[in-house]
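seq:
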Amino acid sequence: QVHLVESGGGLVQAGGSLRLSCAASGRTSSSYVMGWFRQAPGKEREFVAAIWWSSGMTVYTDSVKGRFTISRDNAKNTVYLQMNSLKPEDTAVYYCAHLPPPRTYYSGTYYLKPSLYDSWGQGTQVTVSS
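struct:
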């Protein structure tokens, strides 16, 4: 079991920046993929970015490419989401999540599926004003 706690959300003007943090505790040795999702009012939870813990490989949704950067600090068991050039469309509650290793295998873009993640943070609100 991995316990996740997000921080760093807030109110920022369009064009500004925020850095979200997600501190992990518990059975972090089982970590496989750490992801960031977001959910705006009335909309489904949306994949934002993910990082493979061991290799550092990253993937982003198209709408944030070039603006957001996901990273990790292995020593601190913490994953970050640096958000630059923020837009009002980025306004949402942001959640970090843990994807465990597969029992058999994963196929396709499995990291996009919220149902495969087994641990979630409490969420942190990001509001971008215009």
